[in-house]
Specification:
The structure is a single chain. The protein is α+β, with helices and mostly antiparallel strands and 165 residues long. It folds into two domains: 8-60, Thrombin, subunit H; 64-157, CarD-like, C-terminal domain (Methane Monooxygenase Hydroxylase, Chain G, domain 1, Up-down Bundle). Helices cover 44% and strands 20% of the residues. The protein has five helices and five strands, in the order E-E-E-E-E-H-H-H-H-H. It has helices spanning 64-74, 85-98, 101-113, 120-141, 145-157, and strands at 8-11, 15-27, 30-38, 45-49, 59-60. The protein has a five-stranded antiparallel sheet. A hairpin with a 3-residue loop joins strand 1 (8-11) and strand 2. The chain is globular.
Length: 165
């Protein structure tokens, strides 16, 4: 699939971003073309090879209405998982690599609701999954990080007056 500057895409394991430039770089005596993608959450900028976008799992950001559906479905998502944290971590990493927004949202919900008992690795995974969901919601709905965080917390905790953690 071909992309252009200004397109909103999802980079598995990193979340959503906007293509801000297209550049040529010489690496090991070979000139290759890259998209420069900026995350809406952090200052992270990634360079993705134009000729391998499908191979690294790049996909379009969900639509505004799909984001609404996702936020609605999060409320009823099953978060039952294995009690062995190591096995749970490996399973969640596979889901995160897959790039499915629904699976990533399920990881975020599962880990956010058990936040107090997380290992260091799982806490980092929770932050990555949460940021991936937030970045996609932000770009799909064209809203701020604060608005996306509020919407996600309301969906996860099924409460309209969620306190900041």
């Amino acid at each position: 699939m071909s992309y252009s500057i200004g397109d909103k895409i999802v980079y598995p394991m990193h979340g959503a971003g906007v293509i801000v430039d297209k550049v040529n770089r010489k690496i090991m005596d070979e000139i290759r073309c890259y998209y420069v993608v900026k995350s809406p959450i952090s200052e992270m900028v990634a360079m993705l090879p134009v000729d391998n976008m499908d191979g690294i799992g790049i996909r379009d950001v969900i639509t505004d209405s799909e984001a609404d559906e996702l936020l609605d479905e999060i409320k009823t998502m099953d978060t039952e998982e294995t009690s062995n944290w190591n096995k749970r971590y490996r399973e969640n990493m596979e889901k995160l690599k897959d790039g499915s927004i629904y699976e990533i949202a399920q990881i975020a919900k599962s880990l956010m609701t058990r936040d107090k008992s997380l290992s260091t690795g799982e806490r980092k995974l929770m932050i990555n999954a949460k940021n991936a969901v937030l970045s996609e919601i932000m770009l799909a709905k064209n809203i701020s990080l604060i608005q996306a965080e509020d919407a996600l917390k309301k969906s996860i905790y099924c409460d309209s007056d969620v306190e900041e953690e």
